[in-house]
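hey so i finally got around to running the thing on that chain from the lab meeting. sorry it took forever, my laptop kept dying and i had to restart like 3 times. anyway pasting the input first so we r on the same page abt which one it is
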Amino acid sequence: MFLSHTKNKAFVFTLCALLFSPYLLSQSLEEQKPPVTIGIALSGGGAKGFAHIGVLKVLEEEGIPIQVVTGTSMGSIVGALYAIGYSPAMLEEIALRDNWIDFFNENPTREAKSVFQRTLEDKHIVSVPLNDGKFSLPRGFLEGQKFSLMLSKLTLPYHNVDDFTTFPIPFACVATNLRNGEGKRFVNGDLAQAIRASISFPSAFKPVKIGDETYIDGGLVRNLPVSDARDLGATFVIASDVASDLKSADSLSSFFDVMNQAMGFAMKKSDLEQIALSDFYIRPPVDDYTIYDVGKVQELINAGEEATRKQIPELKKLLEKYSYSADQSRFKEIELKDIITFDEILIEGISGDDKMIAEQILNFKSSYQASIRDLDKAIDKLYGTGLFNMITYRLQNKPNNEGQELVFMITSYDKEQFAFGARYDSFYKASLLFSLDLSSVFYENDLLFSNLRVGDQFQLKVNYFKPFTFYRTSGLNLITQVQRSPFNIYTNQNLSSSVNVEVLSLDVLTGLQFMKNFSVSAGTHFEAYNINKKVGETLLFEEINSNASAQILINGDTYDRSVYPTKGYKLLLKGEASQKGWDTSKHLGQLSFLWDQYVPLSPTFSMFSKIVLGRTVRNNYNIPLHYYYFAGGTLPSTLFEEHQFTFYGQNVQELRGPNIQYLQLGGQLNIAKDFYLRGLFNIANLSNTWDWDANYKNLEDGFGFSFGTPTVIGPVELILDGDDINGPFSLRINVGYTF
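ok and heres what got predicted. didnt touch it at all, straight out
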């Protein structure tokens, strides 16, 4: 019995050993596998770097833990955010949500600009900065204000962490020292500033100064930072490479292509060295994309996913010999807050009046807290003053950890530049614009704008503005100008003569902005003018007449953008009066009212309207020619602009009278990205008498359609208009900004 029982025990023991030995063996073998620290190196490549998000997305889904991250240029943005806790899903959401093209537009929003500044925008094709009165090429096209603000906002939870190796995933990024051409690995400091240095692609972004050194894009020395990942402790490095390949000489069609190719030779050599140091290489299929394809984010992310999914079996096979947990849960995702709190506000980099302006706009001291939205709006408002070219911020611990301080780093902007513009239209043909803008000429923060327009219309205009307050929202405005413009005289719809009106004028105005979008100004206007019948000759001033008047103007502007606005309104109210006793040859008074409005009815369609009312209250039949109201043509006039208006269906200046009643109604459809189709109807009465009960037979009407798009040289439009549905029709073209 005992023997039998013993045999049974032996049998059970043997059976268990046979059943569990594979498991025990595998456990033993697993314990014998060397541990691994998996790192990933993300290359630069501009917009193609969005593919890195797809790579990270698949690696996470497959349970491959990333324990070290390095990045260069665009790879530094993706890598840094991933390292501080942004999941691939969050990165994808940010990439798809943000308008990346807008980051390359350094202009402040129209909402942040003063009404005065809104009248000065969008006239030039190119501008060149001046340094001590001499032309100087910029160190880069972009200061990087919007990029820097984006980075400050996204890295906000880690503003207090100076050591990048203590992030949830240790991180480093690479930049190039502009003094000696050597690579700089950033593993500590201000994270947003380090990334900004790494993405400073030459000619695109201005270099970044950190401490005593200046840095540009890290791609010039190490575009694929594999060695940096190894130095941070990675024993197995995955390289994600989206850099552009070298092209054939015949395919280099632009200056930028040649420049990229020249830099690409050194980059290629470095890339090959870094690839050799990697353990696994992923090359997403992005060769058909360019570094500027920021509008193809989803396609690029998909390309990264596609390449990684195909290579996952091979990657897992390589990792089989290492010990790592595929079930290792990812570190805790970053927690984003809508409100920040602090104990003190510091402003660095500026002094004097500039600092006082910043302190008033960035005043959160009453609550010592701010929402991210309010912080963005305050910075936008400060940037909109035109006094500063870089505003960033950092939330950091005070000395001895006695609370937190919100530190703003600000760089003043001395606006001195020469600018050039050009346009063409079917009536005035080609016109050129040369501008010189200076600041702090006689007093701190004053402005001097000089414009020279040449073509069929001539204008030399000098505008000096001396602010009364820090914000440049009130002040003294002195405007002196010489203008010459052809005027067509029509009789019974037939062109009877053409003359040149030549005017030398001086305006002395005191202005004040109120209610954010309105300004009021009042002052005096002096002019000497001449009607020159010798068309084509310039500034003869043979028979000089003079005029002195008092005037008051109220302006309003809430357009969301200056070209093809979709919402908002513009308002002008002007009253002007003169007496013969004021050294003037005419005795007149005029009241003018202009109203333009856009009302969006859908994301792609807006209705618009225009109302013009103008009345000459004295001396209707004996006023200077340029004080008549004119309507006709499809091109807005900026010379004598308060008296000349477009009117579809009529020739330029075909309608004339000392009084005007004008209505325009239309619709604007965004038929494709940045392509607009417009249709409108206008009706007007220009006559010698003001009469609300005007006979409809005296009304002129017309209609038109236009197709256009904004471009780097200004809007380009084709316009078809007429006054009868049966024709005839006129086809006109406008190219360039209106000036």
